[in-house]
Amino acid sequence: MSSALTIAGSDPTGGAGLQADLQVFAACQLQGSAVVTALTVQDSAKVHRVLPVFPSVVLDQLRVLLADTPPAAAKLGMLATDDVARSVQLGLADLPAETPIVVDPVLAASDGSSLLESRAERVLLELVGRSALVTPNLVEAERLTGIDVSTRSGCERAAREFVEAIGAQAVLVKGGHRAGAPDDLLALREGASIQYEWLEGERFEGGPVHGTGCALSAAITAHLARKKGLRESVQAGRLLVAEGIRDALSIGSGARRLALPGILP
Ligand code: PLP
Question: What CATH topology corresponds to 3-135+208-257?
């Protein structure tokens, strides 16, 4: 029985963080496990508080879990602090090198609340260097590479930086924050070269939807755990998120929530 692991923050609303990841794993018909890195106090409108888990407890969760039920793939979400990120890095040493890791380089929530202290960016980049795929949005891509991503060629330069200099096997630069068409850029290491593929996105009306980045990286992780190829996994993840945004549900006073397959409104 394969399973996927999420190492992420808790979002009590269930719309983002590890609660969303586990629901996406289930929607992809996969067992899930979760190591919590931080608690948040939040509702659909904003993040009220962030409380990192003790780093030693993060490390313990990972070590105990990996010794007993190693996952077929793992994703990293919110890491909160430098010490927590280092514990995750230490714990992941017990994960076989061939197990794919997807890194969602979460820096902040949509309301602007920080979900990663800035001094943790160095260790985040080291984790990205061990990843099969990193999934930055435009803000994260620009912040982590220092490259202006406002043009398509800038995006391609940033993608090359993630693969060549930082060491990721592949990168999906998400275009949702772009003013025009929300196309994504997938760049993959292929032998000695890098392949760039622009993937067309569709913009749906109706305002913000919470936790789309979490759901995308979780769905890709679920498909990788099922031994699907990277391109196929990215395609399946993008489809789940596009359909989820199209049918998004209003539950609170703030952002809407992604509709997941198999969940009735
Ligand atoms: N809370 C947690 C625990 C998260 O991991 C994330 C995003 O990764 C968020 C909140 C923010 O979600 P949004 O970008 O939809 O505000």
Answer: UDP-N-acetylmuramoyl-L-alanine:D-glutamate ligase (3.40.1190)
